[in-house]
Amino acid sequence: MDPSQEKTQEPHTPVPRKHGFLFILLMLVIICAMSWGCLYFFFPYTFQAITNQVEFNATDAQKTISKEESNVDSTSFKNKTGITNTTGSFTTRPEEDVHSEGIDESDLFPPSTTQITETKAFLKVPDITSAPTDVQEEQEKTQKTLHTCDNQVNQLDAFYAYLDRQSYLSAYSISSSSQTHFTELTKKLLANPPQISGESNDLYTILKNTAHFFRILGKDNILMMKNILDSEKGRFEQILENYFILVTHPECSKTRYGDINKDAIYEYACFFLNTMGGRLYLFRRDSLSRMVVTYYAILLVDLANDQSRNHHGISLGPPVDMLISEMETGGSSLEGTAIYLDTLYDLKEKYQ
Q: Across the chain, which distance is largest between two alpha carbons, in Å?
């Protein structure tokens, strides 16, 4: 080539390789598509979150404002009611509904049955509907005592009905039933108690006490009572027990046998324990009847001690010791000997 031509020749410009650029772009698109496909296949929830990111960003400002308003409502409700939202995820009501009158706090946050059960189990709350209260126990005790009173009254009624059928009472002129007749005699005795204090000051008082029952009841009634005691020895212990329960229990005081003067009964107990006239009456009877009467006389004076009514100052130590010795020697024929001795030994420890 001619040198002059070489200088005038235009420089060589390389042809752009369009096909190579398109190939690279195509490969990038394929790689991106494969990446999105793998992401959707292996992480579907993450893919869903990423695809919805645009929507979240679009409403982010609105949700932030709603959250701030919810926090303000929750704080205002806590300040007014004292209830704290521990979950942080309850739906607040409009301002006028939450603070309107007549809305109960339990309506806003109703506890579930499971929560109530777990709370009671944790706190060990007793079931007050099934647990007996002191009032219920007292009522049950009173009902039980009243039932006992009724039993004693029924047994005495049955005994007097039994007496009405006995032939040995036909010899005595009784114008009424035995129950009515002996009730009238009991009232007459309680209205005229014997003299306890100063009995030994003069002979007249001793003789008066010795004939006390004869003076108050009369000859016919004394003979009738002696006949009953001799004929009904097997029922004697039960009859005295019935009377003792009805006289000493306050709940039985309104029954026909329990409504008597308690102070007069105390006077007769002292009469049998601490006077010559009373002791003579007992020693004229059989030993079994004497021991039972002495036993209940001791119990009546002991009750008076507990109630601060022993105004005669009867000491129970000597009578208790004497009765224990007598029962251990000849009281085996009594049905309640074991119970009598147990009670007497307790009283011996009490008054020693």
A: 191
CA 330, 292, 193, 283: dihedral to nearest 10 degrees? -20
pLDDT of residue 24: 73
Highest mean pLDDT among 128-132, 146-150, 263-267: 263-267
Question: Where does 218-261 have alpha helices with state H?
Answer: 219-231, 233-248
pLDDT for residue 76 is more than 70:
no
Q: Which pLDDT value is given to residue 137?
A: 64
146 pLDDT band (50/70/90 cuts)? Answer: low
Burial class (CB in 10 A: 0-12, 13-18, 19+), 316: buried
Amino acid at residue number 141: K
Find all residues with CB under 8 Å of 236, minimum gap 6, and list them. 229, 288, 289, 292
Handedness of CA 56, 61, 66, 69 (dihedral sign): positive
- Rounded to whole angstroms, the Cα distance separating 291 from 236 reads 11
Phi and psi based region of residue 111 (left: phi greater than 0; alpha: psi -120 to 50; beta: remaining): beta
DSSP 122-146: HHT---TTTSPPHHHHHHHHHHHHH
Rounded to the nearest 5 percent, the helix, strand and coil shares of the chain are 75, 0, 25
Report the predicted TM-score, pTM, of the whole model to 2 decimal places. Answer: 0.61
Question: Tokens representing 179?
Answer: 């129950």
Q: pLDDT tier at 93 (50, 70, 90 boundaries)? A: very low
Q: Give me the percent of the chain exceeding a pLDDT of 90.
A: 45
**Residue 217 clears pLDDT 70, i.e. is over it:** yes
Contact, 162 vs 177, CB < 8 A? no
Q: Is 66 exposed, middle or buried (0-12, 13-18, 19+ CB in 10 A)?
A: exposed
Alpha carbon distances (Å) from 332 to 116, 169, 171, 216, 328: 65, 30, 34, 34, 7
